[in-house]
Amino acid sequence: MTQGASEEPANRVEIRVENENASSSVEIREITENPPSPVAMSADTEKPALDSAVPTGADRRAHPRYAFVAAIEVVAPELGARIKTRVRDLSQQGCFVDTDRPLALGTTTDVRITKGEKLFEARARVVYNQTGKGMGLMFHAVEPEQLGTLDTWIAESRETLWLAANRRRSQRVLMKIPVRVSSQAGTGPLFEEETHTLAISAHGALIVVAAPVYRGQRFTLSNVQTKAALECVVVHIEKFPGEQTQVGVEFMLPNPTFWRVAFPPKDWTPRHPDAKTG
Q: What domains are there in the chain, each with its CATH number?
């Protein structure tokens, strides 16, 4: 929706439907959960699992959670418990674990997440639990060498979500809007570039960029027409011979009014009652 009922989109909108070994003598009892069979997730169900773990607005805004399935082993030596199950979602700050018997709040655990050939280990604390559902773990001791794996998984999950959203009907509007992109200190070479969008959505955009960028890079995106600016992250990169690089960016915080465009409803199709033929 646009800001204010009386505002009209500034441009004509073209809409296209895109068809270990424990060191103590504590006896560890092993609990193996029986995770449900793998579920084929459709594009419409792939979305940040923001409500699974720590149910605080600040956590959801600063550390968005993404659907992520992997094997996990949670060990709580002080309780003599070991749980083998699966991760349901992941963020830079923690994860949500499926288990019928979640551990008590505040329990300190060692976690070991395995996906393919990659392994992530950290110390974590139980910050949310729900009997019969699972528990949210917050990482509080992560070795520097483990951060690379976590960052890779987050970037892959973010890109999967972005691609899925852009395949959905009505999720993006093809529109050329002048924008300015500028890198942030500490995120690579400094640059500022005047460019334009190829497509926009309520959560980001597809833009062309001449400067070299990398997936996971953060920079400032400014709407030249409205002078509004926000922070975004590179989630997808496509390079074509002889052409500028197409870069998919996602807003760090959702901002459906940034483009001043009224986006079609999620159920929009050429047969939608609001669709008009020429």
A: 1-19+169-278 (2.40.10.220), 29-164 (2.40.10.220)
What is the C-alpha separation between 133 and 52, in angstroms, rounded?
Answer: 10
CA distances from 181 to 190, 193, 223, 229, 247 (A): 11, 5, 9, 9, 11
Question: Which position has the token pair 């760090």?
Answer: 252
Q: Is the separation of the CB atoms in 117 and 70 below 8 Å?
A: no
Q: What is the DSSP string of the chain?
A: --SSTT---SSPPB--------SSSPPPEEEE--PPPP----TTT-S--TTSS---HHHHHHS--EEEEEEEEEEETTTTEEEEEEEEEE-SSEEEEE-SSPPPTT-EEEEEEEETTEEEEEEEEEEEEETTTEEEEEEEE--HHHHHHHHHHHHHHHHHHHHHHHHSTTS-EE---EEEEEE-TTSSS--EEEEEEEEEETTEEEEEE-S---TT-EEEEEETTT--EEEEEEEEEE--TTSPEEEEEEESS--TTTT---PPPTT--TTSTT----
Contacts of residue 176, defined as CB under 8 A and 6 or more positions apart, other chains included, come to 11, 196, 197, 198
CA atoms within 13 A on the CB side of 143: 9
The predicted-structure confidence for 83-111, as pLDDT tens digits, reads as follows 999 999 998 899 999 999 999 999 999 99
Query: Does residue 190 contact residue 213 with C-beta atoms inside 8 Å?
Result: no
For β-strands 81-90 and 29-32, DSSP reports them as: parallel
Q: How confident is the model at residue 64, as a pLDDT?
A: 77
- Predicted TM-score (pTM) of this structure: 0.51
